Amino acid sequence: MTQRQILVTSALPYANGHIHLGHLVEYIQTDIWVRFQKLRGHRTLYVCADDTHGTAIMLRARKEGRSEDDVIAEMRDAHLRDFSQFGIEFDNYGSTNSDENRQLCESIWKSIVDAGLVREKNVTQLYDPVAETFLADRFVRGTCPKCQAANQPGDNCSKCGSTYSPTDLIAPVSTLSDATPELRTATHLFIELEQLHEFLNEWTQSGDHLQSEVANYLKGHFLSDRLRDWDVSRPNPYFGFNIPDSPENSWYVWFDAPIGYMASTEQWCAANGGQLADWWKNDESEIHHFIGKDITYFHTLFWPGMLKTAGYNLPEKIHVHGFLTVGGEKMSKSTGTFVMASTYLNHLPPQVLRYYYASKLGTGQDDLDLNLDEFVARVNADLVGKIVNLASRTAKFVQQGNLSEIYPDDGGLFAHAASQAERIASLYEKCNYSTAMKEIMLLADRANKYVEDCTPWILRKDPERAHELKNVCTVALNAYRQLVLYLTPVLPDLAQQTNELLNVPIQHWDDSQTPLTGTPVSKFQHLMKRIDEKQVKKMIEESKDATEENEKSVVPEFHAADKWQDSGEALTKEPMTDECTIDDFMKVDLRVARIIEAGHVEGANKLLQLTLSLGGGETRNVFAGIKAAYEPETLVGRLVVCVANLKPRKMKFGLSEGMVCASGGGGKEVFLLSPDDGSVPGQRVH
Ligand SMILES: [Zn+2]
Q1: How far is the CA of 265 from the centre of ligand 1 (A)?
Q2: Residue 555 — pLDDT band, cuts 50, 70, 90?
Q3: Fewer CB within 10 Å, N side or C side of the chain?
């Protein structure tokens, strides 16, 4: 067999969250494939990295009052801890926030610019003037323009289901600062993907780079039309890399994330010798990406387009898998089926999840269902009942002795299983693990039948038949080792335990062809325990508790003296912001003011124009978004509280020189604050 050179990647986990059982479908699937290729003797490199850039990390760092670097370092440690517990073994685990990645982004960008693919366009988007950042849809909430439900997300209404753009919302509010967002225009950089249409058509629709369902999806949804330009920049501040020829912008996280695969390879080369080009600019090198179906679009259109333009290898194959469901349903926090990797490890051994996933993973994009009853039954029946049982029923009779010097007659058992090696290998190669596991279990059934027919537990009672007993155990332990070898990519720990028991390490797939003879057998140690449904129940309980714990922290119980028992709804809708100091508070100059004029603003459907008097002839012109809640004539003469030192802001209708304080979610739900009797305009609120 010729040695292949294979570079393998899993999608980069985002540094804003912990690893859960859904993520693990992909990492376990990839790790099995990598271990299989290594066992076949191919030169294989498995690289991954944390995906660190983007708005979510920036906002989290701000909220927690620490640097982005601090946040991503902590998450990286947690990710690596979870991965290593599940036996996922990367050759290099990098970060998209690395020097290697920055340099590669710059050089690939230059190729794309030089190829004439980049175009500037103005994009108008909602902007948060307080947080000083443009707002993605999910950071805007407001009243649904269709059904008037309050506090709806920026892209669709949870009440009536209508979809809209965040600019259509009535009384939109930024979830970052509660400020009213304003429309702002900024220059973005776009890659004209259409220029690569012919290449992408050719690459996606021919050869074996994609599963046929993926190729068809791309053809049906994207390639049959003009390809839309891809917006690859975000205006600063944005946690990412600044674009050298457009310093007011950073690359969008989806530009630099896949380049992270290359940067991680480069780090490996620096530590182990070799050149990036050996893996990424070499006809002999195969690149395999494993991804979930939600990110197909980025990996099958943008990414090949970038690689092609910059002169790197195109992927040999993109393996796209489905999502995890639990008991046929989406993972859910409230029912406890949203299980974090670390919670699982508190209750169950990682190897059995690797096996269960393998027994369910096929070549397509179907979702993988974790059925908890089936999980317990299958793991116990297959791993304990069929595989480990072969060793536990025979190893004790030969422990601290040797296997037979000459391999005994086994009725063709070993030779039959050896003849299946290439068939099982081809199933692994195609990621058809479920069929591979079935084939291996059929072989295990044959081996168990052999043991049952030979009854070593009866042979051992007769000292005259010691030789026969040794032969039976030699056959059974060789069958066991052969099966463990086929399962090594899935169960590396069991392979290691087997190496210790039989003292000849499994090093190559072809070791399946030759039985061990005359080698020593160590003292038998327990290999694997049955799992119990109680363990699974406890895991689900813990996941549920963790969710309830989180919810409790925002919904405290009522105080004994609280006879009013006001609903916690308002507080939940707008959670408390971070602590501030008295100095912070004193920066905001709140004053009592009298509304001396109030009127409609032509062309504005939410605003009223107010003239506020602070006394002594000092006035402020203010545009307030209170039109849905107040008639202007009812306002004249009343006292309000205003922010008197707010930086004046130019609006479409004129200059706004302050803000009146009100509570409520916007629209009709606006309630102006009034001072108690005796208060006069100009008084400061302390
Ligand atoms: Zn609605």
Answers
A1: 48
A2: very low
A3: C
Q: Give the tokens for residue 539.
A: 């895991």
- Cα separation, 244 vs 568, in Å, equals 48
212-261: per-residue pLDDT in tens?
999 999 999 999 999 999 999 999 989 999 999 999 999 999 999 999 99
Tokens for 116, please give them. 């004439």
Q: CA–CA separation, 402 vs 409, rounded Å?
A: 17
Encode pLDDT of 33-85 as tens digits.
999 999 999 999 999 999 999 988 988 898 889 999 999 999 999 999 999 99
**CA 642 to CA 594: how far, in whole Å?**
9
- Alpha-helix residue ranges (DSSP H) falling in 405-489: 413-419, 421-429, 433-454, 456-459, 466-487
What is the Å distance from ligand 1's center to 172 Cα? 14
Distance from the alpha carbon of residue 168 to the mean position of ligand 1, in angstroms: 12
Q: CA-CA distance, 412 to 400, in Å (whole number)?
A: 27
Interval between CA 163 and ligand 1 midpoint (Å):
8
- Smallest Cα–Cα separation from 370: which of 32, 10, 24? 24
Peptide bond into 237 cis (omega under 30): yes
The amino acid present at 225, given as its one-letter code, is D
> How far is the centre of ligand 1, averaged over its atoms, from the C-alpha of 40 (Å)?
57
Give which of 361, 355, 390 is closest to 375, Cα–Cα: 355
- CB neighbours of residue 253 within 10 Å: 23
Give me the mean pLDDT over the 152-174 stretch: 88
Q: How far apart are CA 68 and CA 80, in angstroms?
A: 18
Contact partners, residue 465, CB within 8 Å, separation at least 6: 459
Distance separating alpha carbons of residues 362 and 380, to the nearest angstrom: 21
Cα of 159 vs centre of ligand 1, distance in Å, is: 5
**What tokens appear for 615 in the block?**
């006394």
Query: What is the whole-number distance in angstroms between the Cα of residue 154 and the centre of ligand 1?
Result: 11
Backbone angles phi, psi at 61, to 5 degrees: -60, -45
Q: Enter the DSSP assignment of 381.
A: I
Domain annotation for the chain: domains and CATH numbers: 5-116+195-330 (3.40.50.620), 121-190 (2.170.220.10), 348-513 (1.10.730.10), 582-672 (2.40.50.140)
Q: Tell me the C-alpha distance between 244 and 293, whole Å.
A: 33
Bridging pattern class, strands 608-615 and 329-330: unpaired
Adjacent-strand bridge partners of 655:
650
DSSP letter at 564? S
Q: How far is the CA of 153 from the centre of ligand 1 (A)?
A: 10
Cα distances from 329 to residues 8, 59, 190, 336, 647, in angstroms, run 31, 31, 39, 12, 51
At position 518, the amino acid (one-letter code) is G
Given pLDDT bands bounded at 50, 70 and 90, which one contains residue 188? very high
Residue 140 Cα to ligand 1 middle (Å) = 15
User: What separation in Å is there between the alpha carbon of 145 and the centre of ligand 1?
Assistant: 7
11: its two tokens: 């999608």
**325 three-state secondary structure:** strand
**Are residues 583 and 617 in contact, defined by beta-carbon separation less than 8 angstroms?**
no
Burial 479-496 (b: 16+ CB within 10 A, else e): bbbbbbbbbbbbbbebbe
The pLDDT of residue 194 is above 70: yes
Greater model confidence, 168 or 21: 21
Of the candidates 533, 298, 517, 509, the residue with the CA atom closest to the CA atom of residue 417: 509
Q: How far is the CA of 231 from the centre of ligand 1 (A)?
A: 29
Which tokens sit at 573? 């809708």
Measured CA to CA in angstroms, residue 435 lies from 358, 440, 541 at distances of: 9, 9, 33
Read off the amino acid at residue 632.
P
Calculate the alpha carbon distances from 454 to 38, 63, 459, 472, 474 in Å. 36, 68, 8, 7, 12
pTM value is 0.79
